[in-house]
Amino acid sequence: MTLFKQQNANALVVDPGSYNCRIGQAIDPVPIYSLDFRDIIQNGTITDPDEFFDRVMAQDLSLIKQVTKIPFVLAVHRWTPNKILFALAEKIFTKFDTAAFLPMDLASIYYSNRHQGVFVDVGYNSTRIYSSIEGALSSICRVGWNIQQLDQQVAGFFQLNSKELSQLETIKQKYFFCPENYNQIAQLCQTSSIYNKKVTLPDGTNIDLPSHSRFSLYQMPSLFTQNLQKILGQAQNFSKQPLDVVVVGGASLLNNITDKIAVDAVNQVVAARDRKNFAFLGASVWVGSQVASQEVFGLCKEDLQDYGEQVFDRRVW
Q1: CA-to-CA separations, 281 to 59, 73, 78, 92, 233, in angstroms, rounded
Q2: How many domains are there within the chain?
Q3: InterPro entries recorded for this chain (predicted)?
Q4: CATH code of the domain containing 89
């Protein structure tokens, strides 16, 4: 059953993820651009608002009709300081008349098309776990396990040298985060020293595991497992029906992550193929559905002129 019905409303939607920044319009479910902004986005926070906005507007947005006549919708993390939000709003209102700031965890609810559930956002810098009961967010937990630590686990297990380690990021992004490229892995295994490397186990045995196994040898930290089970238990106490565990975030595309989560969660685990774009899609669904939410902070140019940075004290997140 569709909970959020898409309408004809449109907006310029920007999702500044920690790894890629996605830019597009609400009426189109596919981002027009997915760009590397990591030099100005650190730990999920935009560090240079002026440069960020200028880069967004420097893209060819001709596919979006009357782009400056529609709202500017930005997905942000809850911990973004008012100072950063104010600086972003100042830049936005040089081109746009209205803007909205949508928390990324709320975007996951719209993306999932369900009012209830437990959400696991596996990001580039951290993993967030939270629940939603009737659309109300609760029990938000941030776990410091991330894809970079996974790299270290893989590198340590296979005793990669510095040259091999430098190849790891490129290979992972090209092949393991892109299901459509899986058929190229066999060819890659014949040329990459990462996959041909022999490993000596503690008992002295020399092995060379199949390539697809090498990115399955990571462990979910106990802190992740404990918090997932705790939040699941708390949420289930308030729900009369079994809750799905919805997995989102670009780093969740790494193979076997959903299987490992399913081991710790007896509930059904849902992970759609487009989950790396969840914040962009969730913000787009919110724009189209026109659902009123206290947690979406919308404002116009006059609000900023009248109240300045203090206008962001009104946000409930």
Answers
A1: 20, 12, 18, 21, 28
A2: 3
A3: Actin, ATPase_NBD
A4: 3.30.420.40
Tens of pLDDT, residue by residue over 156-207, are 655 666 666 666 555 555 544 444 444 454 444 444 554 445 545 445 555 4
| Angle between the N-to-C axes of helices 222-237 and 257-264, in degrees from 0 to 180, rounded to the nearest 10 | 60
pLDDT band at 289 (very low <50, low <70, confident <90, very high): confident
What does DSSP say about strands 199-200 and 206-207: parallel, antiparallel, or unpaired?
Answer: antiparallel
Identify the burial level of 201 via C-beta atoms within 10 angstroms of its C-beta, where 0-12 means exposed, 13-18 middle and 19 or more buried.
exposed
pTM above 0.85, yes or no: no
Dig out the tokens for 220 from the structure. 């979910």
Considering the domain boundaries, does residue 5 fall inside one? no
209-212, long-range: CB within 8 Å, 24+ apart, which pairs?
A: 211/185, 211/186, 212/185, 212/255
User: Are 159 and 305 members of one domain?
Assistant: no
| 158 and 238 fall within a common domain | no
Order of strands across the sheet that contains 72-76 = 33-35, 21-25, 12-16, 72-76, 98-103, 297-300
Q: Which of 88, 82, 85, 63 is nearest to 12 (CA)?
A: 63
Mean pLDDT of 48-73: 94
Binned at pLDDT 50, 70 and 90, residue 315 comes out as confident
Burial class (CB in 10 A: 0-12, 13-18, 19+), 45: middle
214 in a structural domain: no
195 with 235, same domain: the answer is no
Same structural domain, 132 and 167: no
The parent domain of residue 33 ranges over 12-109+278-314
